[in-house]
Structure to design on (767 residues):
């Protein structure tokens, strides 16, 4: 069932928007694009200070005991500002993995640190071009992990990573501290996401879950992160929709605002449709957390949000004409982010396949 | 709100199931047109007697006095059964509500409302003309003072079910010397009155509602039939189009379900391999599902907002635009997958489960009730605040606009 936000949730939404409006700075973000290894520290400090890092951690572990809905609202505000928010998503993935493990010691060790923002986590599921390879080549044996994980978001500075790997012929999720891992910076079109290639060579690691449970947990974690990301994508797409709308009202050509040309006006109306459908899917998916239909809802949210953000980025640049392709316009911040977010939690092809598999189970 | 909505849904479903053998999809299969209409009217009567007609109308007018939400819930349940409800869409959705709101003789209007709810009388809506579809105010049908009343001459077009209608609501031009929006007046009309001629138009898709041309030759109207101030008809027409904002919407665009498509893709092959394993097919399924689930979530949220006494957001305007386009494309792909087997056509099949019929009738859905382009204009102008189109006829007296 879809939901209506309650008062507390609405307050989170408006407060996070307000705070980010006040603190985000386009020039700083543009600067990050030209430097590898740097990230949006002021955003992260803001996130910690606002308690966003604690949102999804249980109260017993120093968190606020909230969930995907609240995290989604913050992610949406971060997406609108193209804030460098990778940890918002990856820390959440790690929180979910720790909770799925049922390992009280590990939870006690890491959850309070994740809640306070003291620790930063990465999620390393992908290998090659596969977001969640059915047979991962990374191997966990005798308390050690070996293998390679390319383009891990936040990997450059994360303290720990949750890794999808193989353990005695079964899939497994393990936790590894990254101090001992080799990390190589990925120079990216969206620097600031701290992408790194990680390499493990008999790195000490701890088993979280294995076997069928690991398979289910990995998919669930990926789906949860995909729903957070969908909110972030919608925040970006909606920001672009309004940027395009305002520019079309202002900029004149042939004696009238360009928004009076239907080829421009209808494109903006189409963006509205994409954004609203994606938003409805994302809210619905967040409300389905923990329910049987969650994977399907997450896939629908992920697909429609990716389409909305990519399309909004393409069309908004086009509507701006020459001004749209300049560095200073900053529209490319969104264009780049739309593509990096389209990949980070599994590409369209992955989610399309997953959704169709789910639907085939139904349409017998 | 008196009744708990979930139990209302169950009650509606139970009743629908009880009458489905008499009026549902299977019972209607292959039934000739006259009998189809008669079954439609019997179904409407049964609905009235079971308390499911005029669900959100005033009990004074034969309604049930429940909320629009109850009505939406009933219609959502009703949708899957394929009941013969098409005849009453315009009648109960637009024409009768406008008569109830604007008719001068209240008692007469009340009688009409009850007769329409019982399926005894059907109403049509006579707005569009050869020269005025999207441009509603471009119409040319003329109404002139005639003694104590009025006299009507001209032609309407696309009038759904005019051939079965007892009455209609009509907008006509009373003054061509003022700007086009200002010289229009709104009336109700007896479709059997002398001088009214109805001529059916055959549509490309068999299952589509039947539309007609309607001609007026010195048709007499009393001033009591007037539903708007003289020259104030455009505003009334706009109010009419707004009346049924919350009618049930179907995320499939009134076409087949996603599960129906998945079943087809399981059976079909592409170059010797199962179609369901083809990436292009999977992509189409996934994207169409994602779009539909979004629309469904929008509708659910709107219902919850209404239940909570709030006004739903404007995103409901997306429904028809987005769902029918997607149904059109999915139906094309379905026919592709059927290959030569898809060339057969079964007139009378339903758009809900026959891909060919769904595809043939889809263009109607993209035009009737506001073409895609007009819906995009509405979203752009009303919701997003973008400029109005250039309208060179603005402020020009109607009779000086080049035809
Ligand atoms: C099956 C069916 C049932 C109908 N039932 C009824 C009924 O019961 N009563 C009734 O009154 N009417 C009815 N209609 C009429 C319907 O409302 C009109 O057909 C519709 O509004 C389009 O008008 P038109 O056909 O005159 O097309 P036009 O207005 O001539 O449009 C032609 C094309 O031009 C485009 N266009 C027009 N203006 C613009 C613009 N400003 N910007 C961009 N593009 C534009 C349109 O989108 C369309 O693509 C029915 C139509 C159909 C097909």
């Amino acid at each position: 069932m879809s939901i209506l936000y309650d008062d507390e949730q609405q307050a989170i939404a408006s407060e996070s928007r307000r705070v980010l409006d006040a603190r985000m700075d386009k020039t700083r973000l543009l600067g990050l694009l030209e430097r590898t290894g740097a990230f949006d520290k002021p955003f992260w400090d803001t996130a910690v200070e606002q308690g966003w890092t604690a949102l999804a951690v249980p109260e017993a572990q120093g968190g606020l005991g909230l969930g995907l809905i609240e995290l989604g609202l913050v992610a949406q505000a971060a997406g609108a500002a193209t804030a460098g928010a990778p940890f918002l998503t990856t820390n959440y993935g790690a929180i979910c993995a720790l909770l799925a493990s049922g390992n009280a010691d590990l939870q006690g060790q890491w959850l309070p640190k994740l809640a306070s923002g003291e620790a930063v986590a990465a999620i390393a599921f992908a290998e090659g071009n596969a977001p969640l390879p059915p047979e991962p080549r990374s191997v966990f044996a005798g308390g050690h992990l070996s293998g390679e994980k390319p383009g891990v978001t936040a990997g450059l500075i994360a303290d720990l990573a949750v890794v999808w790997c193989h353990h005695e012929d079964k899939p497994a999720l393990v936790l590894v501290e990254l101090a001992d891992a080799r990390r190589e910076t990925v120079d990216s079109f969206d620097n600031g996401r701290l992408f790194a290639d990680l390499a493990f060579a008999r790195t000490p690691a701890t088993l979280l879950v294995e076997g069928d449970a690991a398979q289910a947990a990995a998919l669930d974690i990926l789906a949860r992160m995909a729903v957070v990301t969908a909110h972030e994508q919608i925040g970006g797409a909606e920001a672009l929709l309004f940027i395009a709308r305002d520019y079309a009202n202002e900029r004149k050509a042939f004696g009238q605002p360009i928004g009076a040309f239907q080829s421009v006006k209808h494109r903006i109306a189409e963006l509205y449709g994409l954004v609203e459908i994606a938003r409805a899917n994302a809210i619905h998916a967040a409300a389905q957390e923990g329910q049987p239909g969650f994977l399907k809802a997450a896939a629908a949210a992920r697909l429609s949000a990716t389409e909305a953000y990519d399309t909004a980025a393409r069309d908004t640049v086009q509507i701006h004409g020459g001004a749209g392709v300049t560095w200073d316009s900053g529209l490319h911040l969104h264009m780049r982010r739309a593509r990096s977010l389209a990949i980070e939690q599994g590409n369209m092809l992955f989610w399309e396949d997953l959704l169709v598999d789910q639907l085939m189970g139904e349409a017998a | 709100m008196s009744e708990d909505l979930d139990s209302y849904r169950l009650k509606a479903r139970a009743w629908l199931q009880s009458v489905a053998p008499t009026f549902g999809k299977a019972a209607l299969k292959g039934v000739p047109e006259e009998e189809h209409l008669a079954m439609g009217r019997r179904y409407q009567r049964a609905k009235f007697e079971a308390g499911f007609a005029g669900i959100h109308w005033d009990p004074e007018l034969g309604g049930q006095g429940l909320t629009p939400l109850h009505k939406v819930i009933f219609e959502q349940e009703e949708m899957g059964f394929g009941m013969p409800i098409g005849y009453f869409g315009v009648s109960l959705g637009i024409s009768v509500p406008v008569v109830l709101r604007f008719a001068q003789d209240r008692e007469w209007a009340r009688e009409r409302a009850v007769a329409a709810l019982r399926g005894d009388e059907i109403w049509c809506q006579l707005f569009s003309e050869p020269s005025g579809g999207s441009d509603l105010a471009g119409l040319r049908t003329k109404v002139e003072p005639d003694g104590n009343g009025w006299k009507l001459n001209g032609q309407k077009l696309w009038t759904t079910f005019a051939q079965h209608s007892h009455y209609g609501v009509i907008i006509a031009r009373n003054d061509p010397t003022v700007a086009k929006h200002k010289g229009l007046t709104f009336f109700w009309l007896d479709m059997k009155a002398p001088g009214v001629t109805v001529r059916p138009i055959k549509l490309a898709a068999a299952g589509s509602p039947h539309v007609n041309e309607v001609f007026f030759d010195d048709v007499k109207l009393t001033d009591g039939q007037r539903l708007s101030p003289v020259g104030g008809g455009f505003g009334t027409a706009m109010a009419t189009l707004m009346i049924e904002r919350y009618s049930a919407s179907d995320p499939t665009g009134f076409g087949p379900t996603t599960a129906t498509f998945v079943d087809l893709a399981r059976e079909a092959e592409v170059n010797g391999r199962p179609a369901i394993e083809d990436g292009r097919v999977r992509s189409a399924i996934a994207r169409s599902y994602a779009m539909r689930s979004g629309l469904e979530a929008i509708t659910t949220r709107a219902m919850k907002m209404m239940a909570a006494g709030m006004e739903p957001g404007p995103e409901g305007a997306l429904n028809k635009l987005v769902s029918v386009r997607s149904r059109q494309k999915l139906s094309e792909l379905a026919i592709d997958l059927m290959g030569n087997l898809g060339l057969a056509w079964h007139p009378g099949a339903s758009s809900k489960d026959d891909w060919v019929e769904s595809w043939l009738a889809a263009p109607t859905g993209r035009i009737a009730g506001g073409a895609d382009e007009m819906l995009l204009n509405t979203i752009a102008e009303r919701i997003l605040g973008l400029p109005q189109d250039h309208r060179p006829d603005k402020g020009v007296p109607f009779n000086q606009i080049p035809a």
In short: The first helix of chain A runs from residue 7 to 23. DSSP finds eleven helices and nine strands in chain A.
